[in-house]
Design a protein that fits this description.
The complex is a heterodimer of chains A (291) and B (364). Chain A has 291 residues and is mainly alpha-helical. Chain A contains 11 helices and no strands. Chains A and B meet through helix 3, helix 4, helix 9 and helix 11 of A and helix 6, helix 11 and helix 13 of B.
């Protein structure tokens, strides 16, 4: 028998980092910027959370550290891609490499060569057996919708992603709005990373994000840049990841690598089926330069 | 392009000046990183120098050939990035294309183990290049037919390829005793020969193999293709100015597919050369991330084949240098290379964006 309740619980837990990162990236993309460096930002969040918790033995401080460090790296991304109008994809790719190197080097410098295992406490359940980050991810879905469609700030953000020139003419500083959105996206990615390390694993492993930043990017696209779409897509991916645990428990005779590859295959399939979407912000990925 | 406005000599001097500027910047970067990690900078730099180039006491042959050895896969994967990015496809799929290539090459070795050595070697090389090209074409097709961003699809294909590799070395391609997660050794007759006899290198046994010739040839061929053939011109035009390419009635889809196929084939070549020249067996974690390092290599090389060869040489030296450093200095690992890469490329990208900040052109 498959324990439905446990499977659902596991699915939500696995969906948490994806949802947090995807919500942040949705805001970034709605403002007209693609941050492909999401993976790197998550990795930095995961690492700085562990670093702060081992130093201070305080889990909340770990969350703060994750948001701050990833936010700082996101600002670096913004300097190049928003202020200097460099190609966003190139800068994002470089950010990922930089984050992989930084976390790897600092991890070995701080905790010795790989092989040593750092243990940290993990966030305890708050409500319905879910930790604070999962609850935050779930609450941010309706909040994001309200912010986008019921507030002036949300309207301005969407305008920056659709018609940056007209928005600037309307007296809005497009570069500042985009920078702030990138900062927010970075902090959310940091929390997403923290939910992997101090949220569930209780440790840090080099490259522990394993492509989840890119899956979150796929979630934003296949969720059609909407909060609810992100939630649905994140739950689907959480479910696919959960399959391997169900498979193990049921004793399915399949190579385990198949389950490990499944989330990536599903990502591709969903992107293929999603196909040519018209809902992308009109100025997405196009650097804005003041005339 | 400002290149055409100068004579070849002026161009050469300009790039020499630019190159030494980058080198100086990178040394400063290394020193700063050492200071941050509390390693005495002079000791750190000396260890890197000894690992990459050598010293009077331990000789120069071994470190220099090791640097060249580590340069080979970086040149080939770097060229693959040059080709796809020049066509406006920001593929990060080199790692997966390389991985799928070596899986197919090893499968060919298993099936065709009885074949004469040179034939088997040739088949493995062609098979690996073909498989790499196919893996690239998947991402190309997704982009062109289904509008799936290649940045995402290539990463997904990388992870899928890694899982396929992990599966075959524990499954169909596992060595005969079924103990270790690796393949049987590739038949010795098919391996690439070493090119420097010990009599030439002061009796030092070096590992440099025929692959270096492949790498040099690939640089020349890609350079000629990009800058001296009509289809190379079409490729660059489509990457640089899609609107103009449309006006010139170029079939952008076909050119891009061609670009990503060539790019994948180069990665397959990189993998199989390492398999036939260095490791001789297939195992998990075969690539230490060549496919990702390829991006900084190509960007630092100005997305130009010759520049890419030079920056691959630089990173090859940095890799063997930092692994030497890691042996002597606690806490500073070879991952340091990634930090140097990232920071260096940011500097280059930033400098270029700063130069073009007012112009209406897209910058890479």
């Amino acid at each position: 028998m498959i324990d439905t309740l446990a499977a659902l619980h596991g699915t939500i837990t696995l969906a948490t980092p994806l949802l947090l990162a995807a919500i942040g990236e949705t805001v970034v993309q709605k403002s007209g910027v693609v941050n492909v460096g999401l993976e790197g930002l998550m990795l930095v969040g995961a690492f700085s959370a562990v670093l702060a918790v081992t130093a201070s033995a305080s889990l909340p401080l770990g969350l703060v550290a994750a948001a701050v460090c990833s936010g700082l790296l996101a600002l670096l991304f913004a300097v190049f891609s928003v202020r200097l109008a460099a190609n966003q994809v190139v800068v994002g790719v470089v950010m990922n490499l930089l984050a992989l190197g930084l976390t790897g080097t600092l991890y070995r410098a701080r905790f010795g060569e790989t092989g040593t295992f750092v243990k940290t406490p993990t966030l305890s359940p708050l409500l319905f057996g879910q930790n604070a980050l999962t609850l935050l991810a779930l609450i941010s879905v309706p909040l994001l919708w309200v912010w986008f469609y019921k507030t002036r700030a949300g309207l301005i953000t969407r305008a920056c992603g659709e018609q940056p020139v007209a928005t600037e003419a309307g007296g809005i500083n497009v570069l500042r709005v985009r920078t702030l959105c990138v900062l927010f996206g970075g902090m959310m990615a940091g929390l997403a990373g923290a939910s992997l390390s101090i949220g569930t694993a209780g440790t840090f492993i080099e490259n522990m994000t394993e492509g989840r930043g890119f899956i979150a990017l796929a979630i934003v696209t296949s969720g059609r840049w909407s909060a609810v779409g992100c939630l649905v897509a994140a739950l689907v991916f959480g479910g696919v990841e959960q399959l391997q645990f169900i498979g193990q428990a049921q004793g399915w005779r399949l190579p385990y690598q198949l389950f490990l590859a499944l989330p990536y295959v599903v990502t591709l399939m969903i992107l293929v089926l999603g196909g040519k979407t018209g809902q992308a912000p009109a100025a997405l990925g196009k650097p804005y330069r003041r005339a | 392009m400002s290149e055409t406005a100068f004579s070849p000599l002026q161009n050469f001097l300009r790039s020499l000046l630019k190159g030494s500027g980058y080198l100086l910047g990178l040394i400063v970067l290394l020193v700063v990183t050492f200071l941050a990690l509390r390693v005495p900078p002079m000791v750190g730099l000396a260890k890197i120098w000894e690992g990459a180039i050598g010293s009077k006491d331990d000789g120069y042959w071994y470190p220099i050939t090791e640097t060249l050895l580590k340069t080979i896969p970086l040149v080939l994967t770097g060229l693959s990035v040059v080709v796809s990015w020049r066509a406006g496809l920001f593929s990060i799929g080199a790692e997966g294309q390389l991985t799928i290539g070596i899986v197919v090459a090893t499968a060919i070795a298993k099936v065709g183990g009885h074949l004469p050595g040179s034939l088997l070697c040739l088949l493995m090389i062609l098979g690996s290049m073909g498989a790499g090209a196919f893996w690239g074409l998947l991402a190309g097709w997704l982009r062109i037919r289904r509008n799936v961003q290649e940045v995402i699809s290539t990463i997904m294909l990388n992870y899928i390829a890694l899982q396929i590799l992990a599966w075959v070395v524990e499954g169909p391609l596992q060595e005969a005793t079924h103990v270790k997660p690796q393949s049987d050794p590739i038949p010795t007759v098919a391996l690439l020969p070493r090119i420097l006899p010990p009599t030439l290198t002061d009796g030092m046994q070096t590992r440099l193999h025929l692959g270096i010739v492949f790498a040099v040839l690939a640089v020349v061929i890609v350079a000629v293709y990009l800058f001296r053939t009509p289809s190379g011109f079409a490729l660059r035009l489509i990457g640089q100015n899609p609107e103009a390419a449309k006006l010139a009635r170029l079939n952008a889809d076909r050119v891009r597919l061609q670009a990503i196929a060539i790019s994948g084939a180069l990665c397959g070549l990189a993998g199989v050369i390492e398999l036939l020249g260095v490791t001789g067996t297939l195992y998990r974690d075969f690539s230490p991330g060549w496919g990702y390092t390829a991006i900084p290599v190509a960007l630092l090389g100005g997305l130009h084949p010759a520049g890419t060869a030079l920056s691959a040489l630089f990173f090859g030296g940095l890799t063997s240098g930092t692994s030497n450093l890691a042996r002597f200095t606690q806490g500073v690992s070879s991952v340091l290379v990634y930090v140097i890469q990232g920071a260096a490329v940011l500097a280059v990208v930033g400098a270029r964006a700063w130069k073009n900040r007012k112009a209406g052109t897209e910058t890479t």
